[in-house]
Amino acid sequence: MDEQQRRTISRRQFLTGLGVGAGALVLAACGAQPGASGGASTAPTAGSAASAASGEVQFWDMVWGPPEYIDTAKRVAEQDFTAANPGITVSYQSNPWSSWPQVFTTAVGSGTAPDVSTGGGYQAIQFYPQDAILEIDDLVAEIGVDAFLPGQIDGMYYNGHYIALPWGIDIRIPFYRKDLFEQAGVAPPTTLEELRAALKALTRGEQYGIAFAGASPLGWQSIVSLMYMFGGGFFTADNQLDVMNDRNIEGLTFVADLIKDGVVHPGSAGFQDADLSRAFGTGSAAVMFFSPSAEERVPEIKDQVGILSPMTGPHGDKATLMFANNLMIYKQTRNPDATKAFLKWWSENSLPIWTEGHAGNLPARRSIAADPYFQENPFIKPIIDEWVPVGRLTGNHSTGTFPALADIDAGGMLNTLATDLLQGRDVTETLQKLETTLKGLKSLQA
Amino acid sequence: MTRHQRRLVMRWSLFVLMLVLVTVVNLPIISLILNSFRSTSEILSSRSFLPEAPTLENYAFVTQRTSFGQWLLNSLIMAGGGMALSIMAATLAGYVLSRFRTRFVTAYGTGLFMVQMFPILLALIPLFIFFRTLGLVNTYYSVIILYTVAQLPFATSMFRAFFDGIPVDLEEAAKIDGANRFQAFTLVVLPLAGPAIAAVAIFAFLFSYNEYLIASVFLRREELFTVPIGIQQFIQQFSTDWGSLMAAAVLAMLPTFILFLFIQKYMMYGAIGSGVKG
Amino acid sequence: MSIKTASSSSSELRVVLRRRRLDLFPIYLLIPSLVLITLINLYPFAAGFYYSLQDGTLLQTGAFVGLQNYLDLMTRPEFHNALRFSAIFALFGVFGSWAVGLGLALLLNRDIPGRGFFRVALLLPWILPSIVSIVSWRWMIGDQTGLVNVVLGFFGIRPIYFLSTGEWATFSIIIVKIWRSFPFMMLSLLAALQTISLEIYEAASIDGASPWQSFRYITLPQLLPISVVLWILMTIWSVNDFETPWLLTQGGPSNATENLSVLSYRYTFLLNNVGLGAAVAFFTMLILMIFALILLRRQQREP
Predict the structure, then answer these.
(1) Of A205, A392, B267, C295, which sits most exposed with the smallest number of CB within 10 A?
(2) Which of B128, B133, B137 lies closest to A36 in CB terms?
(3) Local confidence pLDDT in tens for the 446 residues of chain A
(4) How far apart are CA A214 and CA C185, in angstroms?
(5) Which residues lie across from A307 on neighbouring strands?
């Protein structure tokens, strides 16, 4: 009796639920009336604020540096630019990192995208296939591809078009503790073999050779950097998926061996970037891969922080993972000319966002990177001179950029790979799992 | 020991127990407060629980160099608005759900129930288009309305459950005394709803005050930022200004703390109302 | 799905009210919430369902694929993983926070010096924005210098990396969830406790009932209606909780703490596959509805 009764009642309840839906539709139709008329009268007013006539450019920027960054970038965009380009005004808006996917998707999807924005290395290619990004071949031709440090502009090229400008280099660099190396009596390694030996020598008690931040993108980025030093990569030169190659297996086996050696900080799989820099700062890890300016995270021991030079892999490769942060124009812009003028100016003249705003990344423009601020900084110069030339974008062997890279960059599957390894799982199985996930991606099925 | 002494010992041992519980439970908050008096570099490098070189620098920075005051004001306005609106709508709806079991009302209850299971993330674009049509994006109103709606299912069911516990005899008596149905509700039932209103008010306020997702999408101008969005400005891609973040968090706790102190008395008062049940 | 606690006279009144045809009074009272709910929820809801039947992105509609996304989902290991974790997370989170909340509510309901202070102090975990409470927890348990490991070290226990293995991360995230949720439980149960008449307890104690018997046969049954509502609400909130797992562990390590809502987010916004993302959301809704209906009907049948 119970069974039958339950079924009939729940169906009825379900249907009455539908009834509410139907009734609500009617109400919604009535309710929409004032809404629609209100919209008609307010829309033009709202629109005119950003319209072409006034020559206003809306610029959305991410938080690229400490609190002074936002003030500086706002000033450079809104005041310095207009002083140099009377007639065009810029409105600057800072965006938090944690919400960028929904903020930009919502903005594009509802027709309220900014004219121009900064973003990570794959934001332009994420939105370009959805018809949201303006091609800027003319602008790149005008600036010239040689104006950028090596490798940067290639990351903007897709299907015969440039879809963004590179403006900031983010790169994974091994930092080391000079004092701990000295205590252990080891010299900075120049090959990966030496690195493994050094890490062993550096591990004693609660002190470990190296730590990773598995709960942050830094984790997989560091591990993939090591993999690239073996010549590994997830794609062939013609952008075909190639996960289970020998070099990848060899590179990740190296990481797995480090874990077996016991030289990897046991907390690595769960660390975020703050835990990583704290492990480094308190001396419980002697080496870490980080983005430039890591020394600023540990000011007390800044003197003891060194940067390793590129290490040669067993097949003669020198490499690390690098990103070309994007500066892109949205197709919805009502003012493409003013926006391009701004983009061109910003690309050339944004030096103060580093010198005063202390942005964490490095400039992609040669002219800016030549500034004494970078050339005289002992923590930056070796990165620009030694690491950027061997920096590789996420595709490594692949050409240009393509949508699957955006999925791989933000989609979380490499986090899984890294934390699998850091928890001691089998290399081949882990790679196979990654291959299965990648094959399930929409961007790789077409 | 006399009975009185036994009671006294009992009371004070409970007191000690509570003191221990409160401390343990609040350890993360205590460490947060302690950290707010340390420089970011000390937070990152120190192993000690207590600040080694206590400083007010973080507070000075947050209050002087950021728009913290504006964020706080925005948060209070939007949270207060959402709270007031949802209490108004939900007391009425909760009362109807409790007293009128018609098919339509039951169906509304079911619908309300379903609605809160739908994740807001997927609704963002349609909602954004809706509010843009009304010209309400980048205003307090869109966020207040969304907070109200987000509260409604919970607030309504709280009130419904509460009104279920209030005997209908009271309203009948009021009607015999000549009150109409609306008066019976507002003059007899509503005054008893103190504890429920207090609970819903706290809940609605906190939800809105700490909400991040809706605010981050619908408020695209710095002068409209709420505290949770403002705090995000201390977070870069791979590093965070922990000192400022924690100082801002501690300052943001104060209004809620004061609200709690105020409302908890009100809840005590509400407890007297329970006598009517017998 | 109604909750019945009222006396027989109230049901008589209801019968009277039901007989009256086209009674507009309840409709008037419902108007404010009805209008808000329909305006804000209906269209996005329909749009979301439509997404789940398509092979598109949030920005571009794709081909109509019927139930393909749902079928596809069933074959994906990450979905099974998220389903399992969501169930564990909800089960332990809900009952943990209910039990802790009930215990504290009972204590607070007693005559303790400084009761008002304790009441507020125990609500504090609730007043932090999620980013802040997660950050404070990470400082407590994130590495070997965190307070918890320092205390463990005091007892000679080697550091535990609470967020660095799947098992410990699952345990930790449930504890954090309980910590963030119990104040709400406590407050709601306390409000309910205060509506229980003291006379019932007095009568019971005159009849010789032990404190445990009073609790078992008076307090618990009186708290049952509100508890069922709380369990259901907390389950919904746990399953749909995006911020706790995302901020604490990003769903890791190795997806051990990825729940359905993080998975839906990942599909929708990070992998440009709103079809799968929406399918996850609607599948989740379906499960939650079934769960809620079962619980409410069981409770309805109770005497």
Answers:
(1) A205
(2) B133
(3) 344 433 333 333 333 343 344 334 433 444 333 333 333 333 333 333 333 435 899 999 999 998 889 999 999 999 999 999 999 999 999 998 988 999 999 999 888 899 999 999 999 999 999 899 999 999 999 999 999 998 899 999 999 999 999 999 999 999 999 999 999 999 999 999 999 999 999 999 889 999 999 999 999 999 999 999 999 999 999 999 999 999 999 999 999 999 999 999 999 999 999 999 999 999 999 999 999 999 988 888 999 999 999 999 999 999 999 999 999 999 999 999 999 999 999 999 999 999 999 999 999 999 999 999 999 999 999 999 999 999 999 989 999 999 999 999 999 999 999 999 999 999 999 999 999 999 988 888 75
(4) 34
(5) A175
C120 vs B117, B199, B261: nearest CB? B261
Return the structure tokens found at B66: 């950021």
In C, minimum Cα distance to A441 occurs at C271
Domain that holds residue A381: 54-170+323-392
Say yes or no: A370 contacts chain B, CB-CB below 8 A: no
- Name the interface residues of C facing A (CB cutoff 8 Å): 1, 34-35, 37-39, 42-43, 57-60, 76, 78, 131, 138, 142-145, 159, 161-166, 169, 249-255, 266, 269-273, 293, 297
HSE value, Cβ hemisphere, 13 Å, CA-based, for C298: 10
Q: Are strands A208-211 and A173-177 parallel, antiparallel or unpaired?
A: unpaired
Domain that holds residue B20: 3-35
Place of tokens 């303790």: C112
Which runs of consecutive H residues, i.e. helices, occur in A203-270?
A: 217-228, 246-261
ipTM for this prediction:
0.84
Q: Contact partners of C by the rule of 3+ C-beta pairs under 8 A?
A: A, B
Q: Are strands A391-392 and A320-329 parallel, antiparallel or unpaired?
A: parallel
CATH number at residue B123: 1.10.3720.10
From B50's Cα to the closest Cα of chain C, the distance in A is: 11
* B173 close to C (CB below 8 A): no
Do A164 and A179 share a domain, yes or no?
no
* A278 and A427 share one domain: yes
Cα-trace Rg, chain A:
25
Cα–Cα dist A100/A106, whole Å: 10
Subunits next to A (3 or more Cβ pairs <8 Å) are B, C
Q: Strands A362-363 and A165-171, how do they pair? A: antiparallel
Nearest CA in chain C to A108: C59
Report yes or no on A202 lying in a domain: yes
What CA–CA distance (Å, rounded) separates B260 from A326? 46
CB–CB contact B41 A298 (8 Å): yes
Q: What is the 3-state secondary structure (H, E, C) of A112-136?
A: CCCCEEEECCCHHHHHHHHCCECCC
DSSP string, B184-195: IIIIIIGGGGHH
Q: How many CB pairs under 8 A join B and C?
A: 291
CA separation (Å) from A16 to A19, A389, C22? Answer: 5, 66, 17
